[in-house]
């Protein structure tokens, strides 16, 4: 971990030190992914199976996971595991249910009623990455809001073999269409449909560079599918003062660093003493991690910034816009109203990032790579869409007519004007 | 207008008849736009001025419109025009203020408090097209929510010369940075910044194919800017039964058709008699429109569908997913809960689309081209972002710890687990 004193840097040094690393080489991935998408669009299920054999080195008996197989997963899991998943499910459900929008109806002027109504997105696809360890938590983060929003069809794709934990959570979330498909081929199958896989309207979920690129490509095609948000490497920024426990902070920094070698890890503190203590604690705690090698790589590009004050720490954080923001200061809540550009914020000594990753109730699908400046933490809103409604009474239209007519004239749109005047004339006839 | 009986079509005919026309030739536009973006990134203001001279055939004295010029616009407008714009401003403000989210705070389990907080997007850019007529209504639709959301910097670009109506609305919305820039060069200037134009986080607003492509390109670059939504030709679908006035419907269809030759216009009705009456009325009303030629082109690809029932009309509309949906039936509100996939809905005989285009209070920036299935009508939410917060008490963490530890073990993430156990161990020591 590299330690810098903020004040000693020029503005351009400050900006460059917080710049995200460019995401590696696009051209090869772009071409490989468009080929995969084209193969799936042309060949459907048989292309999906061939690609699965090529990339995942397995040929599943069937693309779809049967409901018997989903049911069987439960029997193989420990009671402790099921209880943990159910507790997480309950908390995430509680927080996402609270996000249900209130109906909105306003009379903007007499006789002019405007409303906002919400509808679930009909068909959604959830992508759950495979790899060395299963990610049942991601199924919760996507499956729970889809269920609460009321999406009519929820499809889940994950590279085979799919872990029991994932199947168990799918069942908790009442997802009955689970497919043995990973990578770009899963994204293509959900975006365009195959004989087995239903075409969906929107695709959610994290993945490697190929999955990310496939999501980008299908979202640029209006016949494809919308996507949740742009992706990037995971990040944490910790703001701490000398009231914080350096061992806690070290554990938090490492729990980000172990995600992957490209994880971004930043500590910002007004205390040079704490900075040293944390660096020391990180070194010690690193030793006995099973993923120490990964974490060490991530730490190579990580940063400890010594600032002048907590206020400056907040400015630095707002400028960087971290995915995860942990605040371990004496009065963390005092800073909340000043904090901006973060995906999820963890207040105080007893709120490590891993509680939000799994089970506090908040969503762990968050904007990263600076997208916190414009994008939201994933929530119920992402599984729904807002439509507006207006209903005018006769009197409402009469009263609003002069405004609409004047503006339509200014914009040179005759027919817009006439849609109003033709009605007003009829009203005047009625009133005679 | 082509009339078809829905029942007489095969399913594939039904699907193909409602298919949107492909948006013309991308390759040339893509290359031209990336060259414009590159020129602006390299050359800044001087490139912007050169491109403006090339495309808009004017060289403004200054890129920025001075506050004196903005003030002067007011003096040149009629009292009637100002009153209309102020009335529209008031209604749009009322409806968008009502969209302010309630603070959300939930204790998901004892000692685990989760919150959702909202922050404005800091810097937004509004693009207002030029062309034959000024579009002050679009300034209202973008400027009002930006103002209510509390965006700290609002930049407006429009091709010179900028109409007085646009400058007047900019002043109403307290937009003080107005620039004489149009087309792809405006999008590039706002996405990347120049000496004069501040870089923004998100760009809003409609435009021609070049503006649309520029928005797409900058939104695909993480150093660029986010955008409001994908664009496409404007559309209206009218559901009507034989209680409707054919002259009203004809006026509504024409007010969509006059937007542009690629406008999509659809009437769906269970009444063959009404279908004929509307077709006749459209023919008659078309004659004396100043934009008759444009409307006639749009009508060439427009459609009258005779359905079996109102229920089937609703299904057809939901399948098509129109930008604007007008319902002129005996009991329009009865249908509302069945309606899905629309941008904005106009209920009843006295709610023509043009009231929503200008002044009812709803936003006229709407998803089109089928994007209603996944995207929302523009609203306050698009000028803000949601962050989540969690704060656990000591007891909250102790209670949640087993769940987090079990899940971290399942996912093979040691450091995630330790961020919890290291805290729980400290708590146990404290309690000794």
Automatic annotation (TrEMBL), chains A, B:
Required co-factors: Zn(2+)
Binding of Zn(2+), residues: 256, 259, 357, 416
Residues the record lists as binding NAD(+): 127, 185, 208
GO-annotated biological processes: L-histidine biosynthetic process
Record-stated family: Belongs to the histidinol dehydrogenase family.
Organism of derivation: Vibrio qingdaonensis
Enzymatic reactions: L-histidinol + 2 NAD(+) + H2O = L-histidine + 2 NADH + 3 H(+)
Top-level taxon in the UniProt lineage: Bacteria
Cofactor: binding details: Binds 1 zinc ion per subunit.
HAMAP family according to UniProt: HisD
Protein name in the entry: Histidinol dehydrogenase
UniProt cross-references to NCBIfam families, sorted A to Z: hisD (TIGR00069)
N-terminal signal peptide: none
GO molecular function, one term: NAD binding
Binding site for substrate: 234, 256, 259, 324, 357, 411, 416
Keywords linked to the UniProt accession: Amino-acid biosynthesis, Histidine biosynthesis, Metal-binding, NAD, Oxidoreductase, Zinc
Known role: Catalyzes the sequential NAD-dependent oxidations of L-histidinol to L-histidinaldehyde and then to L-histidine.
E.C. no: 1.1.1.23
Classification of source organism: Bacteria, Pseudomonadati, Pseudomonadota, Gammaproteobacteria, Vibrionales
Main EC class the enzyme belongs to: oxidoreductase
CDD domains xrefs: Histidinol_dh
PANTHER family: HISTIDINE BIOSYNTHESIS TRIFUNCTIONAL PROTEIN, HISTIDINOL DEHYDROGENASE HDH
